[in-house]
Amino acid sequence: MDDVAYRTARVAGLTVFCREAGAADAPALVLLHGFPSASQQFRELIPLLADRFHIVAPDLPGFGKSDMPPRSDFSYTFEHLTDVIDHLTEALGLDRFALYVFDYGAPAGFRTQLARSSPCATCPKGSSMPVSSGLVPATQHNVVM
Prior knowledge:
By secondary structure, the chain is an alpha/beta fold. It has three helices and six strands, in the order E-E-E-H-E-H-E-H-E. The chain has a single domain, classed as Alpha/Beta hydrolase fold, catalytic domain (Rossmann fold). The chain is globular, with a radius of gyration of 14 Å.
């Protein structure tokens, strides 16, 4: 199956854009993009996985086609992004899912995994390090340790 649906979901006061493919009853795989990208970075991967998985690839807030509220109205922390991901998976009815995280999506993905009461696997890719080395002090509090 290589049909990709484009949809939005209203979660945590934001409109979040998603690419979605695969059968709804297949195992769910959520793809979290890196910086400064969006779900478009997975445009060629999604059709390759859609015959085995229910793929959901959101644009994180501030990226792609999702809302980009000003920093005065939205706290762009990994903890807050975790809340958005959690609300999004609830809104989409994903009780169990695996996460494929990359770069900027990794800290929020790791936090999502730790916060869930139901099983959730995480597959890190690329520069998906849950460490604070290399970050400026103002951003270190956003990283899962």
